[in-house]
Amino acid sequence: MALFKLTVNNRALQAEVEGDTPLLWVLRDNLGLVGTKYGCGIAQCGACTVHLDGKAVRSCVLPVSAIGKGKVTTIEGLSEKGDHPVQKAWDEVDVAQCGYCQAGQIMTAAALLKEKPKPTDEEILSTMSGNICRCGTYHRIREAVKTAASKTK
Amino acid sequence: METLDNTSRRSFMKLAATAGGGLFLGFNWTNSSALPVVVSTKQVAAGSVNFNSYLSIGTDNFITIISPNPEIGQGIKTAFPMVVAEELDADWKLVKTVQGNLDPGAFERQVTGGSGAVPHSWDRLRKAGATARYLLVEAAANRWKVPASECTTSDGKVYHKASGKSLSYGELAEEASKLTAPKEVKLKDEKDYKLIGHSVRNVDNHNIATGKPLFGLDFYREGMLFSIIQRPKAFGMKLKSVDSAAAKAMPGIVDVVTFDNSVAVVGKSTWQVKKAREALKIEYEKEADLESTSDHNRIFQDLLDNGKATVRRKNGDVEAAFKNAAKIVKAEYQCPFLPHSPLEPMNFFAHVREDGVELIGPTQTPDRARGEVAKLTGFPQEKVTVEITRQGGGFGRRLAADYVMEAAKVSKLVKAPVKVIWTREDDMTGGTYRPAVRYRFEAALDKDGQMIGYKLRGVGMNAGNTTREDNFPSGSVDNLLIDSVDHKSPITTGPWRAPITNFLAYAEQSFLDEVAEAAGKDPIQFRLELLEKAKKAPAGDVKYDVDRMIAVIKLAAEKSNWGKKKGVSQGFSVYFSHRSYVAQVGEVIVEKGKPALKNVIVAVDCGIVINKSGSLQQVRGGVVDGLGHAMYGNLTFKNGVPDQSNFNGFRLIRMNEIPEVDVHFVNNGISPTGLGEPALPPTGGAVANAFYKATKQRLRNQPFMEDAAFKSIS
Ligand code: FES
Ligand code: FES
């Protein structure tokens, strides 16, 4: 066990865990940030997507020891009031069915739009195809990413 | 009058506090014709009024309604309150929905399964809303001393046009609660609906998009322990010995306990118990056959030819029909085992205390969970509480209570509150799968291409009756024999979204496409002729609604411009399942010599559509689910061990693999007949038939990806 000091959602937090513990479980079990979801644990589904220094990463395969000074953003910290353009688009387009995959979808989409504010259809497809939605909400995920892009300056 | 049980009173009081006093209306979930009762807080607290469930209107104008059925992504938590709010003429912005906990005293059929929640509750919900509205109007009319007939309602207010007066529901709630509910109450005309039939966004959108702890896996309580369980790796194996010393010595581990054939590692965090599980040394021994997929293929053939079949339906003289046939068509179709793969894996919290049991988590059948845990622990049912969380999908998997029982067993053994978590690998290899099935179809045609004989035999692996003997084409063929054979396998199975029909529909609708071709008829025309026959000269009982089926067929044909699109290969399929009718047209385009599925046109008759947005989602999601599993889903076995254990080996459909899905609803004013499942069954057939049209290759095995015919064209 070791003490890890992390910056999560602009807060300085710490957790005493084994160094190989994936960030996902540190967030969920130690820091009480359960918005980041577990779906597969092997980087296949994207449910656990968070931002590390603004880039989308899969927290289920990211050992806490590898984070160092990196800044972590989770769905809880994407915006203060839940009004990030992607979050708003998700409501407007009414994307969620069960909702379990959607935090990961939103984090993936938000990272994409940060890098490419006006992504092409191809770019949306290739990025978002990394995230599984078992309920099959893909049509609306696609639409919501476009909606969010159209509203981002 | 009966008295309230404690559970009802507790949940009532909780809500009374939320609503801050006002009108409480109890309505009966058990009997849709029973009279709603108005209750005051005082009466309820004294336990003198029996109500079954209610909506409440607070003096703060907020309206609260309990949605008793588990929300697994089917949208019930939004649709139920919409119906009440419609009849109430409520202001939707002021409606709050609360997920009800298990409370058999208050709710009947607190189940999510069989697409039955909305059909079950339609009348009850409307009456509850209309009764409350009636009382609020009465209260206003009394206050204004005007006839109630001169008052109107909208957006949570009562109006008196002549005097220009208005009062909000909140202002009237206290007075309304003192009035007596009417015996009969007039319900709205469909044409006056303002919410029903329109698009209302999911009530939990904000919570979902901001990562609030909604799901079972998110539940946490101070002092709670985590547990991961090692179950036998092979179906047919049982536990022989366990050496847990190394696991117990690992950091964070509190205990390792054994029950049935399972070894549970209990500790302080998910990762710690997961790692410690790897340190267990367990020996297993054989207790039944260790089956492989190659065994199943052999068993299928053997039982199709020689199995002792149970006859499910018989009409006319099948043998004679086949003897006299001008043409006989024969084909076999096969589908593999499938895991449910809800994105939130199985998990449950249990605390077995000295005085009772607390259960919290995702379940489609809270009542079953409670009953089984009560039996296990020896507590009477009322000492077992079940709190239902939002669920990350269910697809039928959460109809079983095995994972709830596990949590209770572990909690009982370690005498602490425990949450049992299944890893994805546990979830995929842990059983209760959609059973593998093989069908043999035979059709006899006379010289005019009339189907005069039809035979279907289904062989399933722990599937029970693999047929739906009274579904179409039964009733339209004079000589018919439908039977089934079941193989008892150690591999566990259970209902999977649209049980049986999720693969029967594909097989049957593909076969009928083959028969239509042999008869030299257009696939749609062929089906319509059969349905005409079922109507005019039925062969035995007809247990589906022929007109509703014809209507969806015609709508799909019209919307897809059937047979008239250049360069597009269309495939047709129609199916009746649960209580609804769905027809689909798949469209394949050949690009650079390769066929690609571009579009699926869907015509749905589920009666009145409650939430347009949610219903569109259900249908699109059903098509994507049906397509994805028909295309890629495959769970195979070697010596009782599943070959696939996570999404790297088991492929789920992704965004770049979906076609456009164009949905049309039949508008016939029939009471809602359910939509969680019926859109899925027809998809495999529409897709397979479209691929056939484009390539002349029949896809008779799922998953298509691994069918030799599909490989030859892709
Ligand atoms: S849980 Fe991390 S990608 Fe699936
Ligand atoms: S909404 Fe259920 S998994 Fe995506």
UniProtKB/TrEMBL annotation, chain A:
Keyword entries, A-Z: 2Fe-2S, Iron, Iron-sulfur, Metal-binding, Oxidoreductase
Keyword Oxidoreductase: yes
Domain 2Fe-2S ferredoxin-type: 2-78
Matches recorded under Pfam families: Fer2, Fer2_2
Key word Iron-sulfur present: yes
Superkingdom of origin: Bacteria
GO molecular function: 2 iron, 2 sulfur cluster binding; metal ion binding; oxidoreductase activity
CDD domains linked: fer2 (cd00207)
PANTHER family, A to Z: BLR6218 PROTEIN, OXIDOREDUCTASE WITH IRON-SULFUR SUBUNIT
Protein name: (2Fe-2S)-binding protein
Protein species of origin: Dyadobacter psychrotolerans
UniProtKB/TrEMBL annotation, chain B:
SUPFAM superfamilies xrefs: Molybdenum cofactor-binding domain
Molecular function via GO: oxidoreductase activity
Protein name, UniProt field: Xanthine dehydrogenase family protein molybdopterin-binding subunit
Organism domain of life: Bacteria
Domain Aldehyde oxidase/xanthine dehydrogenase a/b hammerhead: 210-288
Organism of this sequence: Dyadobacter psychrotolerans
InterPro entries on file: Ald_Oxase/Xan_DH_a/b, AldOxase/xan_DH_MoCoBD1, AldOxase/xan_DH_MoCoBD2, AldOxase/xan_DH_Mopterin-bd_sf, N-heterocyclic_Hydroxylase, OxRdtase_Mopterin-bd_su_IorB, TAT_signal, TAT_signal_bac_arc
